[in-house]
Amino acid sequence: MKITMVKKIKADGNPCCKSANVLGKLEKSGLIEHIDRVVAADEREPFSDGLALALKHAVDAAPFFIVENDDGSSRVYTAYFRFLQEVFDQAVSESEELSELMALNPELDFI
């Protein structure tokens, strides 16, 4: 299995908050060692590797993960909690899951 993480660099040169947060969580948990490649979707460089991967996989938000299996199949994860659960079999708290869902879908209003 090969895992690529695509993080976002904003037009001002700073990393996007969510990408930096996810990268920090991966480092803190030790899971960063299982990420084979981290590439940037750099808004300052329209032909950056990360933007090319986003276009190829029809993804419009970062960070995201591409998991390529040994059999040639691949899957894209745009939700960090789902990536943790399905790829690393990691438990995620309900509050973390809801927080990410709200961030990905601001039009939702949970009661």
Describe the structure in your own words.
The chain is of the alpha+beta class and 111 residues long. The protein has a single domain, classed as Glutaredoxin (3-Layer(aba) Sandwich). Helix content is 37%, strand content 21%. It has four helices and four strands; from the N terminus they run βαβαββαα. A four-stranded mixed sheet has the order 2-1-3-4, with helices on both faces. Strand 1, helix 1 and strand 2 (37-42) form a beta-alpha-beta unit. The radius of gyration is 14 Å and the shape is globular. The N and C termini lie far apart (39 Å).
What's the gist of this structure?
The protein has 111 residues and is of the alpha+beta class. The chain has helices at 17-29, 49-56, 80-88, 94-104; strands spanning 2-9, 37-42, 64-68, 74-77. It is built from 4 helices and 4 strands.
Task: Please supply descriptive tags for the structure shown above.
111 residues, alpha+beta, Glutaredoxin, 4 helices
Radius of gyration: 14 Å
Strand order of the largest sheet: 2-1-3-4
> What is the count of distinct domains?
1
Oligomer category: single chain
In DSSP terms (H or I, runs of 4 or more residues), the helix count works out at: 4
What structural category characterises the helix and strand content?
alpha+beta
